[in-house]
Amino acid sequence: MRAQFVLSEIGVGLRRNLTMTFAVIVSVALSLALFGGSLLMSDQVNTMKGYWYDKVNVSIYLCNKSDAESDPNCAKGAVTSEQRKQIQTDLGKMPVVDNVIHESSDEAYKHYKEQFGDSPLAASLTPDQMQESFRVKLTNPEKYKVIATAFDGRDGVQSVQDQKSILDNLFELLNGMNWAAIALMVLMLVVALMLIVNTVRVSAFSRRRETGIMRLVGASGFYIQAPFIMEAAVAGLIGGGVACAFLVLARYFIIDHGLALSEKLNLIDFIGWDAVLAKMPLILATSLLMPALAAFFALRKYLKV
Questions:
Q1: CA angle, corner 303, sides to 299 and 305, nearest 5?
Q2: 155-204 pLDDT tens trace
Q3: 50-67 b/e with 16+ CB inside 10 Å = b?
Q4: Closest CA to 224 of 202, 247, 208, 243
Q5: Which of 291, 170, 302, 277 is nearest to 235 (CA)?
Q6: Radius of gyration of the chain (CA)
Q7: How far, in Å, are 17, 193, 244 from residue 293 at the CA level?
Q8: Measured distance CA(137)–CA(163) in Å, rounded
Q9: Strand 157-162 relative to strand 133-138: parallel, antiparallel, unpaired?
């Protein structure tokens, strides 16, 4: 009987405050969709870091005749065969080096033509203008400075470049976008909590006579509070379900189909459906507990009748 009464009161409360209930559902859905999206973005960045940092190379570019005329680092002339052999030997002795690949100027020219053959600059380049280099795979990408310290400024070396610095800029941008999403999520959560509190207070005020009578006849505080708390929890849970639907649709239409980024950006290792599904219990639990707790604290003053 009591359960039936509580359920009937929930339905009455939701119908009386339909507009505000709808606003609560929308705000909770948007805030939790951003919450889930920020968690997935964090997972995506970590996945990309693991994927790309494992492929990071350090490039040691050697001086050629053109560099000898224009670059101060190559003031002593183009790299000699002895210098080249010594660099390769020293690289082979370093414990931080996993693998070394030598790319000649002819190979560098061929690769450049394959990638940028349609550009106007490619037509004016010749193989002797391209730099030969050593592509060094490290056992730990964080040990770049060991290579830079050992070879930067050496005779025959034009520069030492670390691809990790380029990736770091990309990941800083992605992390910045993620923090922006988190900030927007926090703002939406605050809006959702304010709406929940106001909705509960309006509902409690509209039924103040009923709650006063229940209090006078000996009804417990929890029994009086339960319909209001469950109204907020139901509205929040609906919003959480909508947020989960948003994430599923976004994953389906943006990554797999529609925009199909997984096919167009095949260099990116996108997170799978398991990561999306793993976030849903957390979103649903948050959507249930957050409104219920907000309603509980908002109702405390209305029990003093």
A1: 140
A2: 889 988 887 777 777 778 777 887 888 888 888 888 888 888 887 777 77
A3: eebbeebbbbbbbbbeeb
A4: 208
A5: 291
A6: 32
A7: 19, 10, 21
A8: 11
A9: unpaired
Buried b (16+ CB within 10 A) or exposed e, 240-250: bbbbbebbeeb
Mean pLDDT of successive 10-residue stretches along the chain, which has 305 residues: 57 68 86 88 80 77 84 86 91 90 87 71 74 87 82 89 75 80 83 82 72 66 76 89 94 83 76 90 92 83 54
Report the C-alpha gap between 14 and 117 in whole angstroms: 65
**Which pTM was predicted?**
0.68
Token pair in block for residue 28: 């909770």
Q: At a CB cut-off of 8 Å and minimum separation 6, what does 237 contact?
A: 284, 287, 288
Length reported for the chain:
305
Phi, psi of 101 (to 5 degrees): -120, 125
Its sign, for the CA torsion 217, 218, 219, 225, is positive
Token code pair at residue 260: 């199909």
